[in-house]
Amino acid sequence: MELPDSIPVVPGPSEDRLAERQLMDYEKHREQMLSWLYGFGKEPESAVGYSESTLKNTAYRLDHFYRSIWDRQGYTTNIGVPEADAFVRELAVSDESQSHKSTSIAALKRLFKWKVHEKGGQEWEPEFSFSRSNSATQPRDFLTKEERSAVREAALEYGSIPRYNDLTPEQRSRWKRHLAQRFGKPIEQVTPDDWDRANGWKVPSLVWTSLDCGLRPVEVERATVDWVDVENGLLRIPKEESSKNRDNWIVGLTERSTESLRRWLDQRTALSKYANSDQLWMTREANPYSSHALRYLINRLCEEAGIATDARQISWYSIRHSVGTYLTREEGLAAAQTQLRHKSEQTTMKYDQTPVEDRKDALERMG
Predict the structure, then answer these.
(1) What percentage of the chain reaches a pLDDT higher than 70?
(2) All domains of the chain in start order, with CATH
(3) Structure pTM?
């Protein structure tokens, strides 16, 4: 789709900065992105695009974002979740107005919408939101202590079915039909092992570990079995796989979360879809968990637990922010920042300022 003349494909600061071949590459990249936003971006399913004024603002905001990335790592158009997260954290502590911060986040979300729809890219959900009328950054809604406990219990019920030995032959027949549909297999191939599979520990271990560690969606996606240290009740996240890619992290787990991981690792070995993968958790379709899949899961768990979500921005980050909120109250800011693997450019905090044992005790008290 042809762009209006008012839309800056390559604004002056970038044109002046880039070498000839970089400029050609960046121009093609921007033309594809902005044309899609103009033609489809607002409602892709209905082919409704953004207005000219919105697109113009978005074009300038995104160009500023790209130049900030180039300042740190040189020219690239390969922008992912870590770069967006780092930019948002810098934006949060900057002196820019709330209006500027809010519109910058909106522009970034449009960029990732294009990447998801057209490039098969990874979904992105910002850790902070900014209000145009409030002078403080607003974290997304977090779960209260009571809601954390309710979600933890709902994870035990999620997708579970009655025990095989507790059912009559007629009831087993009905549940066999359900499991055949659920697992995509002929009904005659459903066995008692499928009952164990349906009542497995995948979802409880995923949810409980996140309630302890405040896992970001990208960390759930990247988690491997090597991260889990059940003997010491720890999650060990290598810097190459962590969201911020700066340090190795050692994160405390409660005893019940450790036990759920132990049980899940045992069950995992019997599932064929994990045979050639070290992925810790996968969806029913054998895919890593995306932000969309995790948002669906947390909303279903809230529904199961009777937690109202209509007037709230509930997402997987709601778990993370609950960890930060209550761990800060229990053990102080240093403990929360360490448990959440949370470093900004302005922070020089070392990992072990708060012993991992103290953080594990605080998690137990949090529920």
Answers:
(1) 87
(2) 12-139 (1.10.150), 145-160+200-366 (1.10.443.10)
(3) 0.59
